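Lecture 7 notes: from sequence to structure.

We start with a single chain of 502 residues. Read the sequence below before looking at the structure.
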Amino acid sequence: MRRSLVVVGLLVLASCTSRTTAPATGRDAALEAPVTPRAAQSASSTAGDVDAGAPAAEKRATAHAGNPGKPGKYDVSVPSPPGELAEFFRTHVPKGGAVTSDDPPKVMHTVAAGETAASIATAYLPLSELYTSTELANAIVKKNPTGVSAGKKIEIPGLTTRVIHDDPKDERLGWPEDKTLRGVFVTGPYAGIKWVDTLDRLAERSLNAVVLDGKDYEGYINYPSKVPLVAETGAIKTLHIPDLARAIRFAHWRGIRIILRIPCFHDPWTDKHAKDARMSIKFAPTGKPIHVDWLDPTNVEAQDYAIALAKEGIEAGADEIQLDYVRFPVHLSSKVAVLPPKEERSKIIRDFVKRVHAVTSAAGAALSLDFFGVAATGDPNDIEYLGQHIPTVAPEADAISLMSYPSHYNKGYMGFAEPGEHPEVVGIGNTAAVKLIKPTGAATIFRTWLQAFPLRSSNYGPAYVVAEAKSAESTGGVGWLMWSPACEYSAVWSGFPKTKKP
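Now the structure, written as tokens:
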């Protein structure tokens, strides 16, 4: 592999940004040089010209035909009627709780012997709009300044203003009518410390999506999964997301869709911990498993693992499943690894994606794939090695997110001395991708990954990310997603000013 091999070094650099909040996560990325020069697209760097808002009137019952992300039965982005809320509280309050006839209803709790603010908070947390039990305990103390003692009747603050339904799928928001999602990527560790803060920042700016790591690229699972392989391998190290359905619900309450990200075949943890290395890639000279941090994309159980996680995410209410590392490793030659011929790889990936799409479409959830930028503008030989031939694979998904980060292209790409200085580079991939998929007649949209980090971009800042967004949407893209490996989005928050209160 000529140009593709240089991806590895820069990917490590881009994935390990120093920070003090949460560990970075790996992401596929693309470094490429063109075969045929093209005229570069231009974009303004004026933040005020971009409309970042979701459609003003999203009618759940009348989503236009062909929209793959369908809403659930209930619109939880708005408060429930007081009567319904009161009835919900009556049937769900813990022992000692009573519902008032106020509008909105209140819940009073008679403190039992041995109860504390902390224990009461734990009991009422499932009914609260406060995300952690510590927050709720502090709110209880503040609301009841004379103390919490046995026999005393106290008011429970911070209760939900929405009825919480038994099936999280019933609360799904689905795609907007125009299919436009604009948002940011969040790791599991970052969600563990900044989930509500991030949701509020998005909602204030009328941004409407989060890509949330259900599984990270090291193979760790961030929520209490019940998939058998997770238990077998011990893939849960820290429960950064203690309750996936509840985390998703907090997003839906703010009008924000959840795109649950599942890295598929790059999985160092499962590669090393699955019994008998049964999903690992085989060593060509001996036919025995080798541990190269990848699962074999042709292995049915490896595919089933991703599908099982997708099902779990859908059951928790995710609006969309996003498959990352849905490709073959490009750094392993046929002399080292038992892998199919490059000419067969895109068909294998296509058939796997079909399997996942059958699951998501049956449930009314959307399916998206992360693709290298090289899939749109690179050498056909490189694309075959990846297994990401757009006309072959893309029609089987609802959306493709090209990773065309300007900093990840070689100097001289499309005539740019330093591509990282040019946010309009992201549009070049969209233009090529749309042209590639058009003959297939597929309804697949392109929702571009944008660079939200300063690597090789001395002019990085609010105007830069806004210019990227313009370039993406003016070249055939439908919405966009910002990626920062450290989840550091200050340039995004500044580039897209607040439009409303959360």
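Residues 103 and 238 are 40 Å apart (CA to CA). Keep this in mind for problem set 3.
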